Task: structure prediction
Amino acid sequence: MRRHTPSFQFSPLGTSGQARSPTTDGFTAAQRFYIAYAQNWCQNTRPQAVRSLVLTDPHAPDRIRVDGVIVNQPGFAGAFGCKAGTASVPQTSCRVW
Result:
């Protein structure tokens, strides 16, 4: 089974013990999960620095760490209502497990 359930789906209560609002600042819990993930890798990097990192660092650049992962998460398309065949939901996606 390849289903992954993000932790935000396990508890219907917020940190205060009160029932969670369906949206916060206009975003659902699922949308906030993916936004937080992307913000974790958010930074401004000059093109020269990215080029240098690609040649010297074994890790993927930050943009690829977000875009390359998110497009392969089925929950992302559902959370934001992305249509198949768009950049956010390619025709073929990677499935490891």
Q: What stands out?
A: The first helix runs from residue 29 to 40.
